[in-house]
Amino acid sequence: MTKILLPTDGSEYSSNAAKVAGTIACKHNSEILVLHVVTDTGVGRKTWQNEGAESIISSILTILKGLGCEEERIESIVEDGNASDKIVEVAKQHNVDRIIMGTRGKSGFKKIVGSVTEKVLQKSDVLVLVVPPNYKA
User: What are the DSSP calls for 99-136, one per residue?
Assistant: First the structure.
C-alpha cells in the first residue's frame, strides 16, 4: 500500500493539493499523512498556534473525507520546526512513497530566496508532485 504525505499550511494551494492527493489516494487505496508544521520560534508552541494547526488539519480532513477517503487511512501530524526540513524528515520517518503539495508560484524576492516547495524538491528522496497555483481539482 502506498503512503502519501500531504503538507498543509492552510492556504487555498494546500486545499488544491488535498483534492489531488485525496483523488489519488481513493483511487489507489493509499494512506494519507497530513502534516502541518508550526514555525519553531524557540519559545515553545502557543495555544493559538495549536488551535490554528487543529483548524488547518480539520479543513483538510473535511476535503479528504468529502472525496471518499476512508478515515482510518488518514493520519495527521503537527510538528514544530522549519517547514521544508520537517516535510523531508517526516517523509523519511514514515516511509512515504510520494509527497503531494501545492505551490504559490511566487516571483521576485520570494522566488530568489526559495519557497518551501522548492526546498522540498531539492532535499527529498521521494517523488514530489507539485500542484500548480492555477490547477482546479
Answer: EEEE-----THHHHH--HHHHHHHH-SSEEEEEPTT--
